[in-house]
Amino acid sequence: FAQFTRSATDADLAVLQRHMEAERRAVDMDDAPLRNRLLGLFHVRIAEMVGNKVLTEMLADLVTRSSLITLLLQSSRAASCSSDEHVALVEAIRARKSSQVQKLLLEHLEHVERDLADLESR
Questions:
Q1: In the 8-state DSSP scheme, what is residue 1?
Q2: What percent of the chain is modeled with pLDDT above 70?
Q3: What is the four-CA torsion angle of 56, 112, 64, 59, rounded to 10 degrees?
Q4: Which listed residue, 2, 12, 80, 86, has the most CB atoms within 10 A of its CB?
Q5: How far is the C-alpha of 26 from the C-alpha of 6, rounded, in Å?
Q6: Contacts of 20 (CB under 8 A, 6+ apart)
Q7: Per residue in 69-105, is it b (16+ CB within 10 Å) or e — as a string?
Q8: pTM, whole model, 2 decimals?
Q9: How far is CA 73 from the centre of its chain?
Q10: Handedness of CA 65, 71, 75, 81 (dihedral sign)
Q11: Is 95 in a helix, a strand, or coil?
Q12: Which of 78, 85, 81, 115 is nearest to 103 (CA)?
């Protein structure tokens, strides 16, 4: 993400902005299948923008593997928090604040991991 924070273009940020707007609409409409797909795809899109094919493939695989459980069990609250965290990440990227991006990314991944662990223990 440090590389992406330095290299993200206005076009990249515009794509992410539109993506986050679609996430928010799906969350607000409580469209679980759409929000699930969009929340996972956010990470894949950034890996694509960085140009890291291996990371893109790994993330796409991880999103596919985790999508069924999140579709069935992720709460609207957890989805909304995840979308909010995406917004904060992109704002920090837009501001070119690498250390803030790293902090927010770690917090986001911890939240996602914790939410998935909670879902699996149900």
A1: -
A2: 95
A3: 10
A4: 86
A5: 30
A6: 42, 83, 86, 87, 90
A7: ebeeebeeebbbbbbebbebbbebbbeeebebbeebb
A8: 0.89
A9: 17
A10: positive
A11: coil
A12: 85
- What's the confidence (pLDDT) of residue 111? 87
Please, which residues have CB within 8 angstroms of residue 68's CB and are 6 or more apart in sequence? none
CA triplet 55, 62, 120: central angle to 5 degrees? 150
What's the CA gap between 16 and 21, in Å, rounded? 9
Rounding to the nearest 10 degrees, give the CA dihedral for residues 98, 83, 80, 85. Answer: 0
Q: What is the pLDDT of residues 39-87, one digit of tens each?
A: 999 999 999 999 999 999 999 998 998 888 788 778 889 899 999 999 9
Which residue, chain included where needed, has tokens 């069924």? 68
Percent of the chain surpassing pLDDT 90: 71
Distance of CA 89 to the CA centre of its chain: 9
CA distance linking residue 35 with residue 72, whole number of Å: 12
SS3 call for 92: helix
